[in-house]
Amino acid sequence: QSVLTQPPSASGTPGQRVTISCTGSSSNIGSNTVNWYQQLPGTAPKVLIYSDNQRPSGVPDRFSGSKSGTSASLAISGLQSEDEADYYCEALDDSLNGPVFGGGTKLTVL
Amino acid sequence: QVQLVQSGAEVKKPGSSVKVSCKASGGTFSSYSFSWVRQAPGQGLEWMGRIIPLLDITTYAQKFHGRVTITADKSTTTVYMEVSSLTSEDMAVYYCARDSGTYSGSYRTNWGQGTLVTVSS
Fold first, then answer.
1. Does residue A88 belong to the interface with chain B, where contact is any CB pair within 8 Å?
2. pLDDT of B80-102, one tens digit each?
3. CA nearest A46: which of A85, A98, A78?
4. What average pLDDT score do residues A86-105 get?
5. B91 with B117: CB under 8 angstroms?
């Protein structure tokens, strides 16, 4: 049981816009920034979004992050086949004294 | 370009210990913290703990406190993670990652390739 809650799956067709939600509480998302990671099959995770809505250099602007209260969202516009991956949200949890992850969302491009 | 190269796959018996290494290159080793994150087969990511090599300060997730030891060797820019009293529930891919800073709210900027630890009698 993950501290942050994500839908287990999401899907979309090429060119579509999809969003993935991440729900937490006042001790994590409600008081700290959220990061998002992409994990392609068989590879290590890679940071996609940090500090709620910042993109590292090299990450396409098709990826965007937002946060409101104790929930955060990752949006992917102009969906491409190479976006098929697992996506994880992460936030520091003040009561656990360390970062916690969501359970992950498997994105399928139909 | 920061690169993290981890040691190879391990097969361990229940009750034993495993030590995984992570060699960092291409960046300033001591100015950041390094985290360990594990992923059980078909499961999500789980943060285990981190170390700030400059200060030799470690922080562990409550779940792993007392069973996991993270150390760093500044002379070889290598971070180590040891798990003791292994059970089948410790079977996972273990990743080291460099954090964006030394503060607790930092994120994981670079990841190693992962080390598969199999626990089997």
1. yes
2. 999 999 999 999 999 999 999 88
3. A85
4. 96
5. yes
Token pair belonging to B107: 């994120």
Q: Determine contact: B114 vs chain A, CB below 8 A.
A: yes
- Token representation of residue B104: 């607790």
- Of B2, B95, B26, nearest to A45 by C-alpha is B95
CB contact under 8 A, B47 and A44: no
For A108, other C-beta atoms within 10 Å of its C-beta total: 12
Tokens of B87: 């059970």
Lowest mean pLDDT among B39-43, B79-83, B104-108: B104-108
Q: Chain B within 8 Å of A46 (Cβ-Cβ)?
A: yes
Counted across chains A and B, CB pairs separated by less than 8 A come out at: 58
Answer yes or no: is pLDDT of A79 > 90: yes
Strand partners of residue B52: B57
Nearest CB neighbour to B105, from listed A32, A96, A102: A32
Which residues face A92 on adjacent strands?
Answer: A99
Chain B interface mutation, best of A35, A51, A87, highest count of B Cβ atoms under 10 Å: A35
